[in-house]
Amino acid sequence: MIALMQALVTDPVQIFFIVLVIILAAPLLLNKLKIPHIIGMIVAGVVIGPYGFNILDNDSSFAIFGQVGLLYLMFLAGLEIDMYHLRLNLRRGLAFGLLTLVIPLVLGLLTSVYLLGLDWTTSMLLGAMYASHTLLSYPVAARMGITKAPAVLIAIVGTIVAVIGALLVLAAAVSIRQEGYFNISAIALLTLRLVIWAGVLLYVYPRVTRYFFKKYADKVTQYVFVLALVFLAACSARMIGLEPVLGAFFSGLLLNRYVPMGSALMSSIEFVGNALFIPYFLISVGMMINVRVFSDTGTIAVAAVMLAVAIAGKWIPAWIAQRIYHFRSDSRDVMFGLTAAHTAVALAVVTVGYRMGMFDERILNSTIAVILFTCALAPIVTSGAAARLKVRMLEEDGNDGATSHNRTNNTLIAVANPVITGPLVDMALLMRNTRGRHNFYAIHVRNDNSQASKTISRNALETARNTGAAADVVVETLDRYDLNTVTGVLNAIEERDITEIILGMHTRATVIDSFFGSKTDLLLRSTHKMVMIVRCFIPVNTITRVFVWVPAGAQYETGFSRWVRAVSRLTRQVGCRIIFCCRADVQPLVRGVIYTENYGIRCEFRTTEGWDDLVMLCKEVIDDDLFVVIGARAQSVSYCAEMAELPAFLQRYFSRNNLMMIYPEQFGEAQVLTSFADPLSSDISSTASPLLLRLRTALRSLRPAVKKRTGEQ
């Protein structure tokens, strides 16, 4: 029977089946008991591992997938960070990192010398084990949706500081042990390699990624490319003497800009990681834990001391940070829960000491006990604190902007052919309102029943539906037969209560053809809803900046706040800068919308006075930028005579740029606008060079001739 069991579990198919059953059953069973499923994965690893019932051997397959899962976990942590809020909390994160490095190191050093009777070098190495930790419970924070909370961001930054510091202490202790003295040159060399390595990745990764994403739009190809960059960073980190987890996390930070949270690529990365790689890592952690170490009384005493130091060394920094930054208890517990788990790095440190003869079996087994208890404690603490923090965040967010959660958006995407359907749907999804209810409809209007027309309609709508499904968003498709395209779109607007329409920019067929085309011109005259006309030559996630040209009087349109919210949501998803070029009286109102909705984007303002300033932008908007122009329908409040020349001007000066024309909603229900002056935002109008100022003066001197030609003078 035993031989039969061994034959079954050595088969790769059977091993993978057992792992999948654990991954499936652990969340289903433990959710009913209100226990984090992470604990279930670890406990299952203990049960089936060599120190449990020995059903599965902790062989190379678990070592490989476990290491991949750990790197994947750190990569996701870097990829999901909100870079805007990370910059706001960077100093606090660095301070917390020093606290969570120094305090465990000092406690470990003192207790190891005076309680465990170890020498100073060995105690310093054991202190490095206490200082290091792993973001084991980060999936709990991500599942609760608190990854943008300051406590989470501070804990993530603190993790990197603590791991780097622990590795430097490890190098120093090994140097003292081998050479008999502290070799400062070895530490300086390691630090120099770290700086050079980070600089090379910082320069190469963004450029290579932008080039690859522009050239290859297939999501599977992009996913494999992203993983290749992650493991390249991890391998290069190990080659210079650092832990691979640092490379995985740093690559996540560098790729953060090119993988928007609402994109299909991000959905694929999260799905594969949460479904396979991260659970594999958790199970492999459980398989390393030996519960039999508690049979030895001496080991229990040492383990009790080490466990007390490990818990106190992480709770005290969280408590100090709470007092310094005036956090509540839930934020303190989240920071403690995220930094309490000791797994891979701690085990690596102790393994090095054991192989060099610095640690005996008691220290090694006690470290296993520390891993067991901290891996069980961290998810429980994080789960309870994250739930309280999420409730408080929802209450505060609801008090600040309750209308944003009650707002319903219905977006109609007009798809003409399958070629432009995917990018158009991607653009619409990146502008979706994640706080309220947002429905998406893709429509294709045909006026004949030919087989070719039906095929084009079916392919375009299927592409729209699949693009939405890849981002986990439902896109309802409408195959409409009507008199003409405009009539079909107008009828769908009334039937579905559409709030905004997105369509691709018309390609001019003849010389006398208009810039937008007759269909678009007729649609603009026939509806008062917000219309967005998009032309993008590059993928949306590779955009570097968003320039928004706002005409005078735009704040008086009823759809002013709607288009500000749309471009702000797009900027937040892409993670780039947005520059508003508008008059001084419009800027406080734009700020008011952005900060009332709490979008947290990097916004800049450039003061412009008239249409002559628009000419200057043609030299500043580059191929990787998105130029957004806020238009106005005839007889609207913000309409002026110069707008009649706008299509010809855009065709002449911005024919090769990524362009979006927005015609705001009219005659709807106007919203109360709040003026806001942000001291942290930048006004870059004063940075213009004297040459540009002289050019502006020369252009304004030509304005009387333009007015005379248009009949204004």
Question: If you had to describe this structure to a student in words, what would you say it looks like?
Answer:
With 713 residues, the protein is an alpha/beta fold. The chain folds into three domains: 57-395, Na+/H+ antiporter like fold, CATH 1.20.1530; 405-535, 3-Layer(aba) Sandwich (Rossmann fold); 541-713, Rossmann fold. The chain is 62% helix and 9% strand. The chain has helices spanning 2-9, 12-32, 37-48, 60-79, 83-88, 90-114, 120-131, 138-144, 150-179, 184-215, 219-239, 244-255, 264-288, 297-325, 329-339, 344-355, 361-400, 402-406, 418-430, 451-470, 485-496, 518-526, 560-574, 587-596, 613-617, 646-653, 690-701, 703-710, and strands at residues 408-414, 437-446, 475-481, 500-504, 530-535, 545-549, 577-582, 602-607, 625-630, 658-663, 682-683. It has an eleven-stranded mixed beta sheet with strand order 3-2-1-4-5-10-9-6-7-8-11, sandwiched between helices. Helix 19 links the parallel strand 1 and strand 2. Helix 9 (150-179) packs across helix 10 (184-215) and helix 21 packs parallel to helix 22. The longest helix has 40 residues, at 361-400. The chain is elongated. 46% of the residues are buried.
Beta strand count = 11
Please summarize the sheet with the most strands.
11 strands, mixed
Output the number of helix runs.
28
> What share of residues is helical?
55-70%
Number of domains: 3
Q: What structural category do the secondary elements indicate?
A: alpha/beta
What CATH calls the topology of the largest domain is: Na+/H+ antiporter like fold
Low-confidence spans: pLDDT under 50, at least 5 residues? 1-8, 509-513, 684-713
What shape does the CA trace take?
elongated
Strand content: 5-15%
CATH architecture of the largest domain: Up-down Bundle
| Radius of gyration of CA atoms, rounded to a whole number | 30 Å
- Strand order in the largest sheet: 3-2-1-4-5-10-9-6-7-8-11
Instruction: Give the CATH level 1 class of the largest domain.
Output: Mainly Alpha
> What is the rounded distance between the termini?
101 Å
Tell me, rounded to a whole number, the average pLDDT.
81
